[in-house]
Design goal:
Chain A: It is a peripheral membrane protein. The complex is a heterodimer of chains A (219) and B (332). Chain A is an alpha/beta fold and 219 residues long. In chain A, 33% of the residues lie in helices and 25% in strands. Chain A has a domain at 89-155. In chain A, strands 6-7-8-3-9-10 form a 6-stranded mixed sheet, with helices on both faces. The model of chain A has no long low-confidence stretch (mean pLDDT 90). Classes of the chains: A alpha/beta (219), B alpha+beta (332).
């Protein structure tokens, strides 16, 4: 589904911060992306999300060589990728329902056509009682789950989550992990960027470990 | 007390029905993607209103000056004067009658009448006092000749004929005065247009910067929409519509305030015509009406400011999006 071949990345004229990345993210796979702070996890995620170009090597994304993509092609590919940001990025003037429904709304769909799907998903992430709450009144865990629901609403092929448990307590972290596993069972590939070893130790999933600019895969 | 209870209970079902309908409608309406009001938005509306007010005032003033200048020019070109200079032994009455006859006999002249003794005395009163006797002083006398502005007479031929009949007659067609007045009026109009251009440039810049300031607070919304897969056109359209509405509201307020101000000035000069202050304004600006060109100008400014606000927001969104994608793999 996503393939990196000899990918290298550097900012400006500095040294490469990521070198010789060779890996594949397969359909319906589940993996952690880990490494110490500053190892380049966020940069790698940004490349996975087409927000950053590699300075060398090639990336194949959902069957397309990204070097051949035009700017106009990006939205349709991004719609197949769900992203959960570390800082949630919910819109403050919208309720949970409206934030979760946003990806469908920007695709031009009528509210009647997606209302039930959105309600079901919000209940699935355990926010049924917070359907009409605004982000300012929600806890970190609630915002995180709303952000996850927003990333999932259009059934993406792959979900990228940047430190999804960074702002929540251990019980909530376990609950979120169960949510990701359940999602993975329904067919979505999942990449979770984290340096929370406690979280990773709970399941024996594949680990992509970044260190000193290189990637080691622990299957 | 019981009648009050009956009253409310009688209306309660209808009230509930209305409330249900209103709530249902409100439920159907989606929250706008761009939040409707914040401090920056309100500041933008106020800035737009003030700048539109100033630009509209300038347009109204330029339109008023140009209309008044044209009127002055018309009034003055409808009249010429013939001056008869007194000389020892000249029969002034006979000379004035000859001048009147020659003038009336000329085609293009609609009337000719001497300035009466009393009118001449009044004219000279500020310089020579109230008890002036025209017989005692060799005062030049005037014949006012009204001419058809559409088909004026041949002034040179008239001058020659007058001098052959009355050598003491001097025709003044006000040409020097009119040309000076036209030059002054043109200078005023040019200055007005210059000021208008400056005000419009200042309005444009203020509106552009105020819009960009208001857009800065919406950067996160642009990014979120971008990352949930919204197309650039969709994002730009959301902001463009929102800012067009804000720009038009501000511009309508400012433009309307200027029109109302002109209208009130017109009313004031009309209702105070006898008073010296209003007389002064009437003498300068006539009816103090800015005319259709003034109203058209104000409408133009409103549309211009609304459009500028919308376009600036669009360009800002497009620039923000290109910055987000600056490092994208397709940037090459």
């Amino acid at each position: 589904m996503i393939r990196f071949d000899q990918v290298g990345l550097r900012y400006d004229a500095g040294e490469e911060i990521l070198s010789d990345l060779d890996f594949e993210i397969r359909k319906q796979s589940f993996q952690f992306l880990t490494g110490p702070s500053g190892a380049g996890k966020t940069s790698l995620l940004r490349m996975l999300f087409l927000a950053l170009k590699p300075t060398r090597g090639s990336i194949s994304m959902l069957g397309r060589d990204v070097a051949t993509l035009s700017r106009r092609d990006l939205p349709s590919i991004r719609r197949r990728i769900g992203v959960v940001f570390q800082d949630f990025r919910l819109l403050d003037h919208m309720t949970t329902f409206e934030n979760v429904a946003l990806p469908l709304r920007v695709r031009g769909r009528s509210e009647a056509s997606y209302r039930q799907d959105v309600v079901d998903l919000i209940e699935w992430v355990g926010l049924g009682a917070r359907m009409n709450a605004y982000p300012a009144t929600m806890s970190g865990g609630e915002k995180q789950r709303a952000a996850i629901a927003r990333a999932l609403i259009d059934q993406p092929d792959i979900l990228l989550a940047d430190e999804p448990t960074g702002n929540v307590d251990p019980p909530m972290a376990r609950r979120l992990l169960r949510l990701f596993l359940e999602l993975n069972r329904t067919g979505t590939a999942v990449v979770i960027a984290t340096h929370d070893f406690g979280l990773m130790d709970q399941i024996g999933a594949r680990r992509l470990v970044l260190g000193e600019g290189r990637l080691v895969i622990q299957d | 007390m019981s009648s009050r209870t009956d009253f409310s209970s009688g209306f309660q079902p209808a009230f509930d029905r209305v409330r249900t309908i209103v709530e249902a409608r409100a439920g159907e309406r989606q929250t706008p993607i761009v939040p409707p009001g914040n401090v920056a938005g309100r500041a933008l509306v106020i800035t737009v209103a003030i700048m539109t007010f100033l630009a509209s005032l300038t347009i109204g003033a330029v339109s008023l000056v140009s209309k008044t200048a044209a009127e002055w020019q018309n009034d003055i070109s409808r009249e010429i004067t013939v001056q008869v200079i007194p000389r020892e032994g000249l029969d002034m009455d006979a000379a004035l009658s000859s001048v009147e006859e020659v003038a009336r006999a000329t085609s293009g002249v609609t009337a000719a009448a001497r300035l009466t003794d009393s009118a001449t005395s009044r004219l000279l009163e500020p310089w020579l006092g109230g008890d002036l006797s025209l017989d005692e002083l060799p005062v030049p006398r005037l014949v006012v000749v009204s001419i058809d502005a559409g088909a004026p007479p041949d002034f040179d031929a008239l001058r020659t004929r007058l001098q052959s009949e009355v050598p003491e007659a001097r025709l003044d067609d006000h040409r020097a005065w009119v040309s000076r007045l036209v030059a002054m009026a043109s200078a005023m109009i040019l200055t007005g247009i210059g000021v208008l251009v400056l005000v419009l440039v200042a309005t444009t810049l203020t509106v552009v910067f105020a819009t960009r300031g208001a857009m800065a607070g919406n950067k996160q919304i642009v990014e979120v929409l971008h990352f949930v897969g919204a197309r650039s056109e969709f994002i730009a359209a959301q902001f463009q519509t929102h800012f067009l509405r804000m720009g038009l509201i501000g511009a309508l307020f400012g433009g309307s305030a200027a029109v109302v101000l002109f209208w009130m000035m017109g009313l004031w000069t009309e209702s105070n015509q006898a008073r010296p202050e209003a007389d002064q304004i009437s003498a300068l600006f006539g009816s103090f009406a800015i005319g259709w060109s003034g109203y058209l100008g104000v409408a133009f400014v409103i549309v211009l400011v609304g459009g500028l606000t919308a376009l600036t927001s669009r360009f800002t969104v497009v620039r923000q999006l290109s910055l987000i994608d600056m490092l994208s793999p397709v940037e090459n």
